[in-house]
Amino acid sequence: MGMAAADPQFHVLAVDDSVIDRKLIERLFKKTSCQVTAVDSGSKALEFLGLHERDDDDDVPQEIEVDLIITDYCMPGMTGYDLLKKIKESSSLRNIPVVIMSSENVPSRISRCMEEGAEEFFLKPVRLSDVNKLKPHMMKTKYKDPEKEPLSSTQVTEQPLLLQQEDDAPPQCATTVEVEMRPPAPPPREEEPPVAVAVVVVEDNNKRKAVEENLSPERAKPRYNNGLAAAAAVSNL
């Protein structure tokens, strides 16, 4: 049965001229499974990092791996702010996160340290919750982003080969489905009901009566051309 992988151990450099504060910081970081190296001055911190206070060469390689530096602000000789500037001016040490701690809450002091590159500024006494906030900063130092590292010669030669293989691959044919667009059919027209047309035939009463008697209309009404004809008609009666 395999053992579970343990959390990575981080190396912390604690700098403080107070023995009590150094012991407190050392105990807090050891609770989070960190290795702690404690010194009492900024000059000893630079010496531990391989960078002396009066060195003109800032490109001194880092001999000991340190994942975080936490330092007091007020110290005799070199202050925590001076130590911060010295570390950020070194090309080999500038990527190490630096945290400043102080018993005095001075906004101008805090802003100056943050502008110089400090990751955090803690007020004393430092608590375990403050220490837990520093793990992401230590992780960033422990595991550098591989995308920012320069490519090796093997990686450089493999990239053109990969591009050539992609170029030699047969092109993929895209299937295009053509859809004939037709205008929508008009809706069916409703059949209109037939209109009944009533034809009314109006006939003259006289003509109607003549038809019923089988007489022509001219015979229905006798015409008298003159008075003689009228008299003759009377005599015949």
Q: Would you identify the CATH H-level superfamily of the largest domain?
A: Response regulator
Which descriptor suits the 3D outline?
elongated
* CATH third-level topology of the largest domain: Rossmann fold
Element order: H for helix, E for strand: EHEHEHEHEHHHHHH
**Highest CATH level, the class of the largest domain:** Alpha Beta
- Proportion of helical residues: 25-40%
The total of helices stands at 10
List unreliable stretches of 5+ residues: 1-5, 145-164, 197-202
Radius of gyration: 57 Å
Total beta-strand segments: 5
Note the beta-strand portion. 5-15%
**Overall tally of domains:** 2
Strand order of the largest sheet: 2-1-3-4-5
User: Structural class of the helices, strands and pairings?
Assistant: alpha/beta
Oligomer: single chain
Protein name: Response regulatory domain-containing protein
Family: Belongs to the ARR family. Type-A subfamily.
Pfam families: Response_reg (PF00072)
InterPro entries: ARR-like, CheY-like_superfamily, Sig_transdc_resp-reg_receiver
Describe this structure in words.
The protein has helices at residues 19-31, 42-49, 80-89, 107-116, 128-132, 135-142, 153-168, 205-212, 217-220, 227-236, and strands at 11-15, 35-39, 68-72, 98-102, 120-123. It has a 5-stranded parallel β-sheet with strand order 2-1-3-4-5, sandwiched between helices. The chain is an alpha/beta fold and 237 residues long. Helix 4 (107-116) links the parallel strand 4 (98-102) and strand 5 (120-123). Mean pLDDT is 75; it is low at 1-5, 145-164 and 197-202. The protein has 2 domains: 11-144, Rossmann fold (3-Layer(aba) Sandwich); 205-236, no CATH class.
